[in-house]
Amino acid sequence: MKIKVIVDSGSCLSQQQAQRAGLEFLPLQVMIEDKTYLDGIDLMTESLYDDLDNGFMPQTSLPPLAMIKDLFDRLEKEQVSDVILITLSSGLSSTNATIQAISKEYQINVHTFDIYSTLAVEQYLALSAIRLVKQGVEIDEIMNRLKESMEHSKGYLMPENLNHLAKGGRLSSGAAKLAGMLKIVPILEVSKDTQGKVGKDGEKVRTMTKAIGKVCKSMIQDIKDGEYEVYVLDSRSEKYAQMAEDLFKDEGIEVHRMSIGAVIASHTGNGAIGIQYIKKVKGH
């Protein structure tokens, strides 16, 4: 049995980073004006942030179909028998379903599930998968361990405004306008509880400080009785990211800091904060 792990750029990994880790990589597409970029290949996160600062409203799409086919052509030639497919939530993109559909043309077994998330959680699951493959763990056991961790994961996004999410169709324009009029900082959950879609917290919070405090307090309660990886991500919002990190550190909880990847920042805009946790994968 020869196993490969495929991940997309929703994981905040570039192609180079993925390849160094032993992962196969598929880039989502980002459209800015009349140009189309491959996230993590010819578009890096900081460059996307610059475009956002300059007022551009990027759109995104799933990886190019030709690249998916080329990847499976190569894997078949390499006599790969099984693939572990880790992609961003099906509630955010049709990437997973599209890859599965194309894979049916090949004699390769695809093992996948909806992670109901993206960003750091996606990256962690992909890196855990490749490490377990290298350890020689049986593929069914790998999938069971990944799913078990996913069941104990959660994430929140707090953008400065909802204009990018509304334009990208991830949130209604009415909800975005109302939040803007009331000067509400939205707390948006993306997890299994929301079926991997962007769900809005019911409580109205009027400052980013209060939003971060509310999310961190809730998460600290969630993870106090287990071993978890905790991530604080931002798109040029260093002050608030540091605030979130400090709240966790005050409770003795280690935090990983990351930038919100380009394909997700296209929908959150700059000034956004993401906070995620996931239970550690057994053996990782």
UniProtKB/TrEMBL annotation:
Keywords, comma-separated and alphabetical: Lipid-binding
Annotated InterPro entries: DegV, DegV_C, DegV_domain_contain
PROSITE patterns according to UniProt: DEGV
Gene Ontology terms for molecular function: lipid binding
Domain of life of the organism encoding this protein: Bacteria
PANTHER family: DEGV DOMAIN-CONTAINING PROTEIN DR_1986-RELATED (PTHR33434), FATTY ACID-BINDING PROTEIN TM_1468 (PTHR33434:SF2)
Protein name in the entry: DegV family protein
The organism of origin for this protein: Floccifex porci
